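Dear colleagues,

As part of the handover before I leave the project, I'm documenting each prediction I ran so the next person doesn't have to rerun anything. This entry is a single chain, and its sequence is reproduced below.
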Amino acid sequence: MNVTNEATALLQLAYDLWTARSEFRRDRRRNKRYTYGRQWEDPVTVDGRVMTEAQYIQSFGNVPLTNNLIRRLVRSVLGVFRSRGRQPVCHSLLEADRCRAELLTKLLHTNAHTNRLDELYARSMEEFLISGCVVHRKWYGRRAGHIGCWTDSVDPESFFMDVSATDCRAWDMRAVGQLHDLPLEDIVAAFATDYTSEARLRDIYAGCTGDSWYMAQWGAGDTEKAFLSPSSPSLCRVIEVWRRENDTYWLCHDTDTGECRRIECEDYESIMTENRRRVREGRGTLDCRRVNTHRWRYYYLSPNGVVLTSGDSPYRRFGHPYVVKAYPYIDGEVHSFVADIIDQQRYTNCLVTLNDWMMRASAKGVLLFPEDALGRGMSLEDVADQWSRFNGVIPYRPRPGVPLPQQVSGSVGNLGITELLSVQMKMLEDISGVNAALQGRLDSGSVSGTLFSQQTQNSLTSLLDILESFDTFVLDAACRDAENICCFGVPTVPGSDTIGDGYFDNFSYDIHFQNPLPCHEEK
């Protein structure tokens, strides 16, 4: 195993970036719990003991009640997103390239169908509402026997990126990566080129099917994925890192042949020697110009700091395969749609639970039976048994000065809980921007169709920012697909030849949405 200083530095870089997103992962897990109904699991400390809010309530013999309003709001926004029906299309910047633009549009739609992007984008939108961040990975290769351009949804829990980046378009990122948990056989199939490299890989991951050294050292918690240990003892951890690195070289123009070529810096002295020789021979020299730029490189690392493979990025335009959208990403901060309404959801649950406590604590059909009035041979257990029967008979012995048996039923006092619940429901709609009209509900039966449409439109206006922000992510993803198609080509049918090399060379195009016609317009 060859562990170099560069590999160790890369591993440390990935660890630092992953650790810097610990607050985001914690907030995401909390938002997800509230979205799917587990809303009493925030930790509380009572007498030095840490427990969940649900456990604290249950310790008093009560039941924590949940009225999940967040899930309904999320489903409403998802319904709006699905109903928009917007598809990215390609437009050529030159009239002569119209045919190539139409073909690329068809290939994009075919690729979307192959990857089931309609469903994937809906689930990604749900993730976007919950966590405020969505990540896709675009790659070219073989899957299920077919070669093509593929899209993978990346779990934000295993994703890390440059925390110093503040551009909402993610154009200033210098490092990005992902943690993979794979079976050892998949790692061997991906990185082994011969029997020697296979034996090397098996040696690196020796013991990964059980308690390996890094699991014993770092552990694997139930709620926080350890950086070096896989989620399951039967899997192996691979750390994928993409880094933007400085790239300095000499661009040389051969005045004899007119050829331009790249010369590495370490070969510059040989170029000077060649120029001196050409001067003596009376030939044209090599005109050189120093070029300083950047390039993306990828590294796949094992948990013990061994570079499994590395190389220059095959993606010409974007550098790395990830499409990232974080919202709103002001000063690098992520704030989700769900996080804005958690406080209202908590207060609603508290009011519902408090009302339940009061109802359970109030007297409901309690029988007050004087012990001195018990009939001969009767016990209080017999009285309770007869009282619960619809045709029960309870003999009792009246005595002077002893009150008659009587039933007591108490009512919950009006503490304004109903009014407070109404206020919280209204605040929830105001903060989220999802009003009753957008959810398909009428506040009253006398609302006109025009007013209902206007209320729906107003609600859509308040959600327009988050919807348009996700549309930007969809456009960026479509641009990646188009770039991969132009760069690598795609099969027209499984097993057939790809589009000819160079067909999309020097093709200037733009990707944007083709909006559907409004319902009142006729083509």
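The chain is about 40% helix and 20% strand. The first strand starts at residue 43 and ends at 46.

All the best with the project,
I.
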